[in-house]
Each structure stands twice: as structure tokens, then as C-alpha cells.
Amino acid sequence: MLAYIIRRLIATVPVMGVVALFVFSLLYIAPGDPAAMIAGDLATSEDIARIHAKLGLDEPFLLRFGHWLWGVLHGDLGISIFTNLPVTQLIGQRLEPTVALTLTTLVVTVVFAVPLGVLAAWKVGTWIDRLVMLVAVLGFSLPAFVLAYLLVLAFSIELPLLPVQGYVSIRDGFVPFISHLILPSAALGLIYGALIARVTRASMLEVLSQDYIRTAAAKGLADGQVLLRHALKNAAVPIATVIGIGVALLISGVIVTETVFAIPGIGRLTVDAILRRDYPVIQGVILLFSAAYVLVNLAVDISYTLLDPRVRY
Amino acid sequence: MGWSLRGLGRWAAAAMLAAGLLAPAAHAQTSGKTIRFIPEADLRSLDPIWTTAYITRNHGYMVYDTLFALDEHFKPQPQMVDTWTVSADKLTYAFTLRDKLKFHDGTPVRSADCIASLERWMKRDGLGQVMALSVAEMKAADDRRFSIILKKPFPLLLEAIGKLSSNVPFIMPERIAKTDANTQITDPTGSGPFKFVKSEWVPGNKAVYVRNPDYVPRSEKPSWAAGGKVAKVDRVEWVYIPDPATAANALAAGEVDWWQQLPPDLVPQLQSNPDITIANTDPLGSIGVMRFNQLQPPFNNEKLRQAVLYVIDQKEIMTALAGDDQRNWRTCYSYYTCNTPMASEAGAAPLSGPRDPAKAKALIKESGYKGERIVIMTATDQPIVDRQAQIVAERLREIGLNVDLQAMDWGTLITRRTSKEPVEKNGWSIFFTWFVGPDMINPALNFPIRANGDKAWFGWPSDDKLEALRAEWLAAPDLAAQQRVAAEVQEEAFTSVPYVPTGQFIIPTAFRKSLHGVIVAPVVFLWNVEKQ
Known about the structure:
- The complex is a heterodimer.
- By secondary structure, chain A is mainly alpha-helical.
- Chain A is built from 13 helices and no strands.
- Chain A has one domain: MetI-like (MetI-like fold, Orthogonal Bundle), CATH 1.10.3720.
- Chain A has helices spanning 2-29, 34-39, 45-54, 61-73, 87-122, 127-141, 144-158, 174-179, 182-208, 211-218, 223-260, 266-276, 279-307.
- The longest helix of chain A is centred in the last third of the chain and has 38 residues, at 223-260.
- Chain B folds into two domains: 5-238 and 508-531, D-Maltodextrin-Binding Protein, domain 2 (3-Layer(aba) Sandwich), CATH 3.40.190.10; 286-505, Dipeptide-binding Protein, Domain 3 (Dipeptide-binding Protein, domain 3, Roll), CATH 3.10.105.10.
- In chain B, 30% of the residues lie in helices and 20% in strands.
- The longest helix of chain B is centred in the last third of the chain and has 18 residues, at 479-496.
């Protein structure tokens, strides 16, 4: 197992290298020049050319990529063109809110969505099943930003219970921390929860039709035991897979959610950097995202061995 | 007593607060002597000399001070300077600094700091570069006295060093001001009424300032950038909220105190809120600008540019841009910001008279236009740009021009506008933008009116007569002479049409009623504002 993990971790290096080269190439050919953004509206062509040269943006592609790669290999993601701050510092400032939002959403949705999916499968064809599926369809259909505005209107303006925007670190207290995350998590989590609930239901329905479930019930086991010990355990692999895929969904979803709730996370950092053509920041963030995806996939693969003893690496 | 959802919510919130379930973190931060302010943009750079970005200029006013500053009568008034003299031949300006001026690091402000700061500013700023041509030397007599010695008289010297908008000649410590003008400074040490807390700066989210206890304000009452800059709160937090709906909700909920620029379409939503004041605190507003590429056909033809003047309807453009409320816009048929000393309607008849598509068509015919494709670039992420472009594109089509309206983001537009190539090679014909009023008040500051060819702003107009008149204006000895020459400059501009002014608009500001003392000025200032 350990050898497998090490092998997988080593395999991430070429993956991230390809991602880095791809992103660097895309940025190179994309229209837009950070020098023009920096210089401001009152700048002349000469001003822009001077800034362009100063930033090293007129260097050949391979030289620029080489400089950047050399820095990355030494743990230096470069300096933001606009703020003149190290990219690692900018990412460090933004990582906590995004991780907090993602984990809160993940925990809340899994806690709600898996039991709802199990319930829907157990009560298949009843009004409970239909209600759960209705909520799931709604979750898929309602864009996160629409839901976000509705939640703010209801719980921050009409019922002034929760803050409209912003983020408070957990170091400043758990209650303010969590109160700033409830609405963003709800907005972000609905589509994710809907996905998990539907997959859980489908997976459970398949398992519940198996002979060994009928046998377990015939033995006189309680419904809870049948559902949780026999059915859910065997239905868990696809559920774990979709939870893993969902994390990728969440990472892309935080961009909209962070904007609507003015949360200073990685998503907003990415959007701002793209709009300004702050190349070192874009490259740094994409590298981080690709690392996160690779690690999540690895975690999902490892979870299979825990959920299904037949899986061995 | 009627029941309402809102009332129920207040009870629920009160109950939860009593139970300690909700900690009003955001509200706690705004309590007492902290102002939470949503600025017009995200603070990205700390160097107001390196960039002309208005947000960095506003940051500069928080942390730096200036030798002179413009007041509401367009007069430069001493700010850091205590006394000054001008020699009879107008070639030597001698200045004495106020006593007890200190930088945020505790060191005194010295003549050497002022000279180094002006030297760096003169390398970057347009007016500074003009001034530099007249400066023989700047020398310090001692730590508080220095002089600027000129090679030839420069009547605008005090206006230049008291310039209101970008780039403002802010005074920095000599060790920082010695930084190459093309390299961004990273140390925000100034001597202004607030100190920047760099450790709390989260670009894209928050910039924090605290009151500078060592700052000695002038005794005069504030007037634009001049007068006493009294910091009346301990802390100011700039909280950048990019989404307008979220910003409106945050202001309504009391999580922020002041939203600098309220989009016109959100005015009705906040107008009914009894806790919020909506005001026009910017007396000069901004000026819309339609810019031609004069290097390439068809707008290298003066007649065609003149034709456009007859179909541009400022009322139509301003209504689309700023709404029906005429407190938020006005027509301004001048190349200078209206309601300022140089503004007039000299030569403006083609733009101010009744719209005349027939005359426009006649001029198009005269120009020999052969149906060449006209690429109008618009930035869909900039409503002010996009609305101007949409309307003008339609009007130009109506008079028979072959318009290709191309949508892009602002980052792409400002890169593409540097291209001097024809439209077939990814060039352009027209783009739109806007400038704040203080940047357009006279021929020296009005940047897009320059017609010095390759050295001019994007579009590169070339008009020797216009340039000669501008030079004459710079040397004009008094206000009457300035106004006379400014009118001549404008008449020539309406002939060669370096750009078309599309109107003057004001973006309202919105703040909680707990704020008092907001200064009416073309730049947002946070001194003098108190929170109760």
C-alpha cells in the first residue's frame, strides 16, 4: 500500500508538469497584457512598452517558462505582477477561507445527502422518495448564485440572522467563523448534495435488490442493520467516488460562491488574476488546483481499500 | 401589533444573540472608531507614481501628503508648505516646510525628501514631464527650506505640484523616492493622516489604515485636497466587494459604512432605506470619451471624424449610462470638464446642435468613405464602456458606416488598443473609456486632447496647430489669457476631433447615516469623516 501511495505521488509530478506547460502556453497566446493593465488608462504606448520590458514579458516563451519552472522547483512561484507580493504569500492568505468553505460544504452535504439517499432508496416509490428526488432535481436546476442571493435575502436581510458577506478566521472564534460559512456552504452545497443523494439512492437500490439483503431481512435483522451494515457498506464505493468527483466540483464552484459572498479565497484570487493577466498568480493557482485534484483522487482510491476488502493495490 | 417576517427575524436574532449563538463579528469590527468602506476598485499597487490607477491615487491620499493641494476654487493651496516666495523674474520658487512634519517611521520630513519625490514624479507624470523641461535645478537650503530654480518661467508650477489627480506628486521619504520611477515601491511609508497596515493587506479583499497620531493637520477647514486633514476615526478598512448586489446588501445590513460608487440601477433599492444616505459628492464627475484610431482608415480622415460629431447624442448616451435621474449626468459640449474655469462651448456646435444625420451623411460622402470596416471595441465587463459603444455603434450604422462591434473584456481591449495595425490585422477603429473630471479641466491635464502623433495617447492624432496652441496655453500668464487660448484649443479640437466627449456623469455614493463630514470633492477623501 505504501509503495502504491509513493508511486502515485511520484506520478503526480509529470501530471503537474504537463498542466504547468499547458497553462503557460495558453497564457502566452491569450490576448491581454498585464503591462497595459498596470500602466493605467493614462499611459502611452511607450509607458506600456517600458513596463512590458521591465517585467520580462518580452522574453522568448521558453526562457520565460524556464525561469518560472526553475523557481517552482526551488519552491518559488514568483512575484505577482500587480501587488509585488510573492505568489506563495497571496495563496497562503487565500487558502484558509477556501479550505474552510470546501470542508464545511463537504461535511454538511455528506452528512445530509447520504442519509437522504439511503432513505429515498429504502422508501422507494413513496412520497419520501419523491420529496428527496424533488429536492435533488431542484438542487441540480438552481444555479448557485441564484440560491445565494435568495439565502442572503431571507437570512441576512429579512431575517437578520447571518452575515451577508465576508470571512472570519476560526482563530477569531468558532461561532463567527461558522456563521460566515453557513450561507455560502448552503449555496455551494445544494448541487453537490443533490448529486450525492441521487448516486446514493441509485447505488442503494441496486444493492437492496441483492439476494443477501433479502437473506439478512429473512434472518430477522432490524431495518437499520440491514441498511447500514449490509446495504450501505456495499454501496459505498460508487458513493465515495462521487464524493471525490464532487470535491472537484466544489473547487470550481467556490469561484462563484466566493464572489457572491465576498470571501477572500482562492476562487476570487483566480478570477482577479485572470482578469488582470497576472500570469504568475494564475500559474501558481492552477498548479495548486491540479495538485489538489490529484491528491483527492488518490484519497478516493485509498478509500476503496477501506470500503471494499477485495480491492488491493 | 402586526407580525412580519422581518420582525420575527429580529426577535429570533435577539434570542440567538442572548443565547450566545451568534457572534456579530463583522459588526464588532465596525463599531466605534472604524469605518468600513467599499472602494471603487481593488487596491493592487501601492505606488501612486508607478501607476495612474485611481484606486492607488486614493490610497496615496490616505498615507501621503503633498506640498500643495487643489481647493474647490481650483486654486493650489499650501499643504505641507508653510510659506513660499516667487522671485520677481518668476524663475525661483522658494519653499519652507511646516514645522513638525513627520513620516510614519518617525523621521522628520526634510527638503531632501521633497526634492527626491518631485524628481521621481517628474519622470512619470505628463504634467511633471512638462515641468521638468523648465526646471534648472532643485536644491535644499536646509532641512526645511528648498527651492526650485527654473530655466524659463513656468506659470503652472504650483498647479503642477498641487495636482489633484493621477499622478499626484506625493511626498515620500528620500530612501523610497530614490527608487527607479519604473520600479514599483513596496514600502508605503508616508507622512499623511493615515498609516497603511501592510501586514493586514489582502489584495483583492482588504486594505487597512490606522490614524497617524503624529500628523499635524492644517488649521483651515477642508476644501477638496486642501485644508485640514483631520483623521476622526482610529481605523479605516477598505473592503473590496466586487459583486454590486452583495455590496448593496452589506451596506443595508450595516456590515459596511460607505460604498464609494453606487451603480445607478441599485439606487432605487437603497433609496428607501432610512439608514442610508445617497449623495453626489463628486462635483466634477467623469467624462465619457470616444476615441478614434487616426493612423488607419477610415478615421485617418478628418471629415469622417467630423461627421460622427453630428450623430453623437450625449443625452441618449448619458441616460443609458447613468439613468433617467439628471442629477447624475449632464451634457458637456466642451473638451474641458464642465463647471471648471476653462470650460466653454467654443466650436462645439456640431456636437451641441440638433442631431443632423443628413449633414453627417454629406460629410461622409465628402470624406470619400468606401465602406471600410469600422471595428468598435467594447468591454462587456465595463458597463460604462459597453453602453457607450452599443449606442454609438447603432447611430453609426444608421448613417451608413460599416460597423463591426467586437465584444471583449477590458484586459483584452486595453492591450489591443496599443495596436497600430489595420483592422484586418487585429487593429481597431474606435474604443470608449472615461476619465475623472479633474483629469480633463485644462489643456495641460487633458491627456487625450494631445495630438503629437506617435507620442500621443492610443489613436495617435497628429495636429501641429493643436499642439502649438496647447504650448501657448502652458505659457499663458493669467486666467483671462488661459481661458482665451483654451477656447482656441477647443475650436481646433472640434475641427480635428482627437476624440468625442460623450457627456459628464456622476456616480453616486452611499453611506450609513452614522457617518458625518463626508467631503464633497472629485476624489474620495476619508479624513474629516466621523462615525457616531
